[in-house]
Amino acid sequence: MSPHAAMRLCDKRVFWSNLRKAFQCLDRNIKRRYSGATQHNNELEDSTSSASNLSSSLKSRPVKERPGEHGILPFSAFLTDKFGRRHNYLRISLTEKCNLRCQYCMPEDGVKLTPRGQLLSTSEVLKLARLFVHEGVEKIRLTGGEPLIRPDVLDIISKLRTVEGLKTIAVTTNGINLARLLPKLKEAGVDLINISLDSLVPAKFEFIVRRKGFHKVMEGIDKAIEMGYNPVKVNCVIMRGLNEDELLDFVSLTETKPLEVRFIEYMPFDGNKWNFKKMVSYQEMLDCIRQQWPNLEKLQCGHTETAKTFKVPGFKGRVGFITSMSDHFCGSCNRLRITADGNLKVCLFGNSEVSLRDLLRSGASDEELLQIIGAAVGRKKKQHAGMVNISQMKNRPMILIGG
């Protein structure tokens, strides 16, 4: 055997040895949490159980029935956490690259990109998607970076459309390339479109995103409306001293257009120079809007929706608030994330990640992948990754998470 081959064999043995140790460390904790633990038991225990019990421990999690090809199937224990949250929504980042440099998303000097060979390939994206859908995921959202700059994005979407059990394919985009690609995106199977837009003033838009392109984004929004997307969701991160003075202008957009303008509280991530003074809370935004439209009415929303939605009577569209900082919605979270380099994140704010890419490339079986996924979901904290102060917690820049 050559030295190079011997080294690769050694690396693989070390990898699986570490994996077995991780199972041993996690097993007793997972088994305890699904054999009658209450929602308040969030502490880890020392482990003495063997890795062979992990599968049965995972399969003892609470389940909910879901429709399947051959009748009713239980919702996957691997995607159900200790608080009974069922994760049927998967966000997949297709790239770390972006053609904008938004202040809240990316450090001013950019980020160090992962080498191309370490990003998930098309076949790896599809394999993971099929695995999650088989376990109960019904909605997949493609994110980035900017997903529409990935050359094979249309191929990925069209193949996702053939995955049995997948009900919804969504895309979050900055809108720069949207008008040009939207006919093909719709033909490939995109059901929902979210477009980022943080200012209605072209010069301010360029200041926030550090690039030109305002008119292209507006063209993309109009194109989405023209092609029948309803509502077209427009994501706006509100930052004090920058764009909070445009709240009423954004709400006015919903008078004649079928938009859902969603105001997002400014959140802390590496490199975005977050501080509490920059954050405009949901309640402050709501009070401002109600001064202009005192009859603003709250709408009913689904249990797992992230946005609190409102409507001005008589307006065609609506507005929403994503209140991650001031009024979290962790208790109903049904989302998991896979980063462009193949890491599973069970919480947006958490810095804990598990490499599914490395497992795939080491030849792991579906069952082995599910054991790791189930263990990660089992460690998910009750709220905000268990952080006392999330602004001080080390995490990736938003651009590398897939926001």
TrEMBL record:
Coiled-coil region: none
Residue ranges occupied by any Radical SAM core domain in the UniProt entry: 82-295
Biased composition annotated in UniProt, kind: Low complexity: 47-60
Reaction catalysis annotation: (8S)-3',8-cyclo-7,8-dihydroguanosine 5'-triphosphate = cyclic pyranopterin phosphate + diphosphate; GTP + AH2 + S-adenosyl-L-methionine = (8S)-3',8-cyclo-7,8-dihydroguanosine 5'-triphosphate + 5'-deoxyadenosine + L-methionine + A + H(+)
One BP term from GO: Mo-molybdopterin cofactor biosynthetic process
Region (Disordered): 37-67
Record EC number: 4.1.99.22, 4.6.1.17
First and last residue of the signal peptide: none
GO molecular function, one term: metal ion binding
Keyword flag 4Fe-4S: yes
Protein family per UniProt: In the C-terminal section; belongs to the MoaC family. In the N-terminal section; belongs to the radical SAM superfamily. MoaA family.
Complexes and interactors: Isoform MOCS1A and isoform MOCS1B probably form a heterooligomer.
Name under which the protein is recorded: Molybdenum cofactor biosynthesis protein 1
